[in-house]
Amino acid sequence: MEIQMKHNKKRNTAFLYECLVRELTKAILKEDKQGQTKVKGLLREFFTKGKVLAKELDLYKSLLESKELNQDFSRRLMVETKKDFDELDRKDIFNEQTALINKINKALGNKAFSNFVPNYKDLATIGLYFQNSNLGAKKRIMLEDKVVGYLTRLDENQTEMKPVDSLEFKMFVKRFNETYEHSLLREQKDLLSNFIVSFSDNGLGLKSFMNDEIGRLKETISSHIDESNTPLNENFKKVRAKLDSYSKRPIDSKMVEEVFYIQDLLAEVKRNAD
């Protein structure tokens, strides 16, 4: 049974944070130094340790980053997290959100709030759970069950996400800049964007994107394979085997680089065919 409830996304601190992360991603991809400075300034001003919005964001993350729990532990975690949420000064949070919204509008424009956030539904559900004091008993219970469902569901993504530290990320960007001096393909921009954002969303968006993109690449490769024993055909088979092997590996910067190369290869094959 579905439950309809109004959710103001601009009053969801986790959503505001994700919008800033995606604005930073776009600025990095465009090599927009001014844009990067603006977004980083807002992140420092509102989300550094000790700031009230940073405290609230941590509570969102405590639920968002928990998966495959049993029901008993899920409900205990929800109760304790909600208790911590209720102890935050709601007036302070409202005022800080208002200040952040105004500064985003001024520095980045209203379009920043239209960024696609892959896990928006989960952010909204948790936000409603935190702020359910004015709901009737039935709606509160239904909402709580929805959060429990999120915390107990199995991760359907086939590929695991290996934690990437800041040094590994910097090395990846260095190698990337040395290798890709030409204009990026659309799919490469999407991959890079998801890789950058993976540092803020626990890799959820990147895992989803990689599963879809690897499937697309395998399908494209398979369309070029025939029964011949030509060197090109054998190379296609090796690439498909490489793609097949990714389901048994956690995602890391090495895999992302390899997928970049494969995207380049298939784009070149398509250009030659055309």
Quick synopsis:
This protein has 274 residues and is mostly helical. The chain is built from twelve helices and no strands.
Describe the structure.
With 274 residues, the chain is mainly α. The chain folds into two domains: 9-152, no CATH class; 166-273, no CATH class. Helix content is 69%, strand content 0%. It is built from twelve helices and no strands. The protein has helices at residues 13-29, 33-47, 52-64, 71-87, 90-107, 120-130, 137-152, 166-179, 186-197, 204-224, 231-245, 253-273. Helix 9 runs antiparallel to helix 10. The model is unreliable at 156-161 (pLDDT under 50).
Secondary-structure class? mainly alpha
Q: Tell me the number of strands.
A: 0
Outline? globular
Q: Which parts are unreliable, with pLDDT below 50 for 5 consecutive residues or more?
A: 156-161
Largest sheet: none
Task: Give the arrangement of secondary structure elements.
Blueprint: H1 13-29, H2 33-47, H3 52-64, H4 71-87, H5 90-107, H6 120-130, H7 137-152, H8 166-179, H9 186-197, H10 204-224, H11 231-245, H12 253-273
